Amino acid sequence: MATLMLEQTLRGRLSLYTVTKQLQDCIWLARNQNKETVVVKSVGHFRIHNERDILLHFQNKTNLLRPLVDEIDDSSTPHSIILRYLDDDILHASNSQRLTRPEVKFVARKVLEGLLVLHEEGFVHTDIKPSNVLVNYGKDTRFEEVQLADFGSTVQVGSTYAQRGDPIGTPIFRSPEAHLQIKWGTSTDIWSFGALLISLLYGEGFHIFKPDVPVDHDDYDVKILMKHHRCFGPFPASYEEIADQERLAVLAWIMQNSPSETLRPFHLTTTREICQEDKELVLRTMKLDPRDRPTARQLLEDKWFCHS
């Protein structure tokens, strides 16, 4: 059910906003009094307040996170936040025209720099994916600015959600430990970054973990874990240190039901598909044991970013 109406006027703390277009159920475009386009998120849900709090926390610390512009706190409408508008997201941009390697590296660096800001203060984004990476187009280069978006589910590492291993994010970008509902932390974002990187390197809407069953299928999550095993497995014995018997049984079943002829290890991909340097960075990132993954800072120091 729509929470706002076209041409509705919203009174913020800093400006008035006129609603111009609905993008999703709870996301709209609007114009401020200077005729500038902004994004309105209007949901009667705790995530709006969480996103506001996260953005306020980082508001003057970085330009790598899409900032909060204003708030609508009118009793006649659900609480809404006003966010900066950017030209596009990297999902649409990549599907429209495959990114060049320098463009992939530019976007990847900015995503990691944004994650570094979050992680060094103990926050986990939890939903890194192409549609949550926003870009502004440039005159001399394709992209001149990159910002991370959607902090509704961003939590601290020590939160109950992380300690319990609550389900997070978008399944095809979700880490193995999050699928298994094992305690997760900042390394879950690193896995999601790696999955995003693979999609950008291949382009054309490719996703390495997309299963062969619909999203509402009972085995959807298990099929994704099987893809994890087939591409970057096997799951290491070290999982015995972080998973209980029930989850270890799931992993054992996955490995038993993945015949060798179905395995397509990423390290065997040819240079016709992806160059050696790209493959090495992906393999360094996509470790099934979260404790083996590099940090955002370590990835930013990788030689991959030094070569065009």
UniProtKB/TrEMBL annotation:
Q: Please report the stretch or stretches of sequence annotated as the Protein kinase domain.
A: 1-305
The chain's coiled-coil residues are: none
Q: Which domain of life is it from?
A: Eukaryota
The protein's matches in InterPro entries, at most eight in alphabetical order, are given as: Kinase-like_dom_sf, Prot_kinase_dom, Ser/Thr_kinase_AS, STE20/SPS1-PAK
SMART domains the UniProt entry points to: S_TKc
- GO cellular component terms, A-Z: cytoplasm
Q: What is the protein name stated in its UniProt record?
A: STE protein kinase
